[in-house]
């Protein structure tokens, strides 16, 4: 593979991966304006974010089998068309209930891009290179939280929040064209795979039986829910508690995203000396420490605006190491059913993220304490899952080796 082709694939796969995050981040500065226009509260508007996460989680389970059955590109075309049409419909929403429902449909469309991009990394690149590729994808993905809320803030002020969704529809159309003309089909359709519920469930159960997948997918997802909690709670935190404007909020969000981007690129360099298994443990331990620093600083009110920004920046840096390694380690055992594994991993991530944001909305008391509690708790739970799961993986591996020795001696 030439360097030009390699970079082209990374760019297209990165834009596919970034579509969901861009759809999340770009409308965040418009929360107060949406609440005012639709005669509701920012907490109610945040439910449209939760419904988006639910849509991504459910949609991934739909697209996983489709990607394995029909190849990668046909389901991707379908999802992008759904995304474009629902984005236009979001711009026309006249009630919060309609917006919440349409955001669910928009998410179902966008998650085809996310599932396909992860599966195609497994198709197109060697296993030992996948962690580096995921880090490069995070560099492209990282541009979205830098650009999206900043642009969203200016667009909302100048043209209204509806224009944000029209821009997203245009982005979807451009990505559809890029996929059609620049992305190869990386997996041949497999007509032998059934789309009936029972075989699909059996396939997912086969994925879940892999201890390495369960450990790293679940630990990564719980850790990732801390990020989605921050995203959901940040409009309240910065625009209502700290009283910054839409444009300033966009710049703060962009700056904080540098932590995620920068750490993901340092992670790529660290693979020259360290394995993914080593990096992820250290990253989650630091995430726990930073999470409890955020919690104590919020409860005792000694952080302030700049202190809060600094601590959240550190928290996102930890995620920049955790997420790519968790993804690579989760996908490593799979080749034939990489689409289903990718879908299940994404569903777990977004499902737990949706749960975290719903809990945040339920316990919203107009302070930053619920957000800090969930972020710190997610890091601690992720560490517990990781340590317990790694112990189980080692025991399972030892048992397998013993069985092979017994069989070998028998023969």
From TrEMBL:
Pfam families: MFS_1 (PF07690)
Keyword NAD on entry: no
UniProt keyword Transcription, yes or no: no
Superkingdom classification of source: Bacteria
Transmembrane annotation, as ranges: 45-64, 76-94, 100-121, 133-155, 161-183, 204-228, 248-267, 279-297, 303-323, 343-363, 369-388
Keyword set, alphabetical order: Cell membrane, Membrane, Transmembrane, Transmembrane helix, Transport
Location of this chain's protein in the cell: Cell membrane
This protein's name: Multidrug effflux MFS transporter
Organism: Adhaeribacter terreus
